[in-house]
Amino acid sequence: MEHQKEDAMENQNNTLEINVKVYPMKEDKGNLLAFASATIGGCFAVNGIRIMDSEKGKFVAMPSSKGGDGKYHDICCPTTAEMRKAINTAVLGEYEKAVEKPSLRGALQNAAKEVAARPAPEGQRVADKGAR
């Protein structure tokens, strides 16, 4: 048993890589912003992570199931504050990147429409499909 404690303490000092995929909600679902999945250390996958919004801001909710008592209980959860912080940081960071992409794409599309709608400067010919 003492050997297990030493291994656990050693592992806490090692940094595990956390890879996250985020799936933002396409429609308004109340305070649910997105689902996410995370692979920890390349060997443990956690699916069903939820990114939620509250009055205090965004937070990560681990997968849970409803128990016989009618309350929701986490299916899996980090056992240390450091790991919880690492998962939260990774998941929320990927969420911000995911929601930033569509807005950037929209801005580029709007800029292209504005350029296309501008009249050609005086003295320049605008070629149409039939002109050669």
Commentary on this structure:
The mean pLDDT is 83. The protein has two helices and six strands. It has a single domain, classed as 2-Layer Sandwich (Arylsulfatase, C-terminal domain), CATH 3.30.1120. The radius of gyration is 24 Å and the shape is elongated. The chain has a four-stranded antiparallel sheet with strand order 1-2-3-4, covered by helices on one side. A two-stranded antiparallel sheet has the order 5-6. With 132 residues, the protein is α+β, with helices and mostly antiparallel strands. The longest helix is centred in the C-terminal third of the chain and has 37 residues. 11% of the residues are buried.
Please provide a brief summary of the model.
The protein is α+β, with helices and mostly antiparallel strands and 132 residues long. It contains two helices and six strands.
CATH fold topology: Arylsulfatase, C-terminal domain
Helix amount, in percent?
Answer: 25-40%
Task: Give the percentage of residues in beta strands.
Answer: 25-35%
CATH homologous superfamily title: Stage V sporulation protein G
The average pLDDT is 83
Topology, please?
Blueprint: H1 2-13, E1 18-29, E2 32-40, E3 44-54, E4 57-61, E5 64-66, E6 72-74, H2 81-117
Antiparallel strand pairs: 1-2, 2-3, 3-4, 5-6
Key terms:
single chain, 132 residues, alpha+beta, Arylsulfatase, C-terminal domain, 4-stranded antiparallel sheet, two-stranded antiparallel ribbon, 37% helix, 33% strand, elongated
